[in-house]
Amino acid sequence: QVQLVESGGGLVQPGGSLRLSCAASGNIRRINDMGWYRQAPGKQRELVASITSGGITTYQDSVKGRTTISRDNTKNTVYLQMNSLKPEDTAVYYCKAGIVAAVTGDYWGQGTQVTVSS
Predict the structure, then answer these.
(1) For residue 37, what is the DSSP state?
(2) Measured between alpha carbons, how far is 41 from 37 in angstroms, rounded to an integer?
(3) Mapping DSSP to helix (H, G, I), strand (E, B) and coil, where does residue 64 land?
(4) Residue 54's Cα: distance from chain center in Å?
(5) Theoretical Cys-Cys bridge with 56: which of 4, 52, 91, 101, CB 3.0 to 4.6 Å?
(6) What confidence tens digit (pLDDT) does each residue in 35-68 have?
C-alpha cells in the first residue's frame, strides 16, 4: 500500500525558515509529478509548488523567490524549503504525488501544520 508521510512543520517566527519533507513508501513502480499544497482556515487548498520527475519546477507567485521545491528520486522524497516566512504562509501543508503502483493515481499525505507567528 502506498503512503505519503510529511514532516518538518511547526511554529516559526516571521522571517524564519522551515524545510518540509514528504516520503513515499510502498510497492512503487514510478513517481511522476510531486507537489506541495496548502490550506489555510476558511480557504481552498492551493498549489504552492510542483516538480516533475525530470526536475522542472513551478511556483505560486506569492512564494517565488522564497521557496524551493526539490526531490530525491532515490529516496522517493520531495522537499519544500521555505525562507522569509510570513504570517500569511500559515496553513496545513500537504504533499501530493502521481504514483504508478498496483493502484495508480494521485496520492496525498496527511498534512503538516506550519504556523508563522511572533
Answers:
(1) E
(2) 14
(3) coil
(4) 17
(5) 52
(6) 999 999 999 999 999 999 999 999 999 999 999 9
HEC-encoded secondary structure of 48-103: EEEECCCCCEEECHHHCCCEEEEEECCCCEEEEEECCCCHHHCEEEEEEEEEEECC
Q: How far apart are CA 116 and CA 118, in angstroms?
A: 7
For residue 73, what is its C-alpha cell?
A: 528520486
For the four alpha carbons of 37, 95, 73 and 52, in that order, the dihedral sign comes to negative
d(CA 102, CA 36): 23
In this structure, is the dihedral angle defined by the CA atoms of residues 36, 40, 46 and 49, taken in order, positive or negative? negative
- Distance of alpha carbon 113 from alpha carbon 58, whole angstroms: 22
C-alpha cell at 1: 500500500
